[in-house]
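[job 4471] stage=fold_predict status=RUNNING
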Amino acid sequence: MKLVYAGTPAFACPPLLAIYEHGFEISAVLTQPDRPQGRKGILTPPPVKKEALSRGIRVLQPERLRTDLAALRETGADLMVTCAYGQILTQEVLDLFPMGVWNIHASLLPDYRGAAPIPRAILDGKTETGITIMRTELGLDTGDILTARSLPISDMDTAETLSGRLSLLAAEMIPEALDTIARGDFVLKKQGDGFTCKKVARTEVDFSRSAREVSCLIRGLSPSPGSFGVCGGILLNLCFAAETACDADVPAGTVVEASPKRGLVVKCGTGAVRLSEVQLAGGKRMADTAFLNGGKLRVGMKFERLS
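[job 4471] inference complete, writing structure tokens
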């Protein structure tokens, strides 16, 4: 059984490595073209391309897959596995693979179909998510399910850490899934009603919300696209927040603790959060205790909304 693997970001690297180490024949890796990155716009290959080339696997990088199918057709692969590839597949693409196209999706479908299942699960305060492997059809993540496994979401998870754990879970699941497909001894499960999540955007934190909501927002958008707040004229990117008790009778957004020993604590609509990791514009992420050494914020100052 020959396969093509389609993926682009770092999330898709562990499943690719698992497939390779399991001994499956990978005819080619399909990924997005190299893109300019950073302030200098240096042309940078996707993580999946680097992983594939390091193992001698052929790499295809069409700008628009739907209009450039020749190389993919020539692979002669029996099936394709997709994992955060980044381009919509047409029926013509699906028809190239007699054993189907199978997608690794980072949620427990049918919930959180679409582009941002990992941050959205944290933003919504969910305590569980998972990986679903499904047969791809033209609908957005609506295909029949081959297998799924759940994973708990902790109060310490950011989108970054949860993505890493889900990627490793996918790597555990995909070799067994491919063995099952190769044997043909599987029964697919149709999806029920679910919902689609949209992409996430950089967001200003509203401290009038509950501490739980504020913490979920900051963690769900960390490290990218990020959240921020403005206090004393200083714009701070907020990288991590944990709920904490607070009895102070002060308006939401007020700094109630600002010391190098105890950190940066801000009152919310109910409760408070400790902003334990922050970043000044153009600077590096740092612990709140290190940031407060500069004396930039004091107790009683208030985060004011820009919008």
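[job 4471] summary: The longest helix spans residues 159-183.
[job 4471] exit 0
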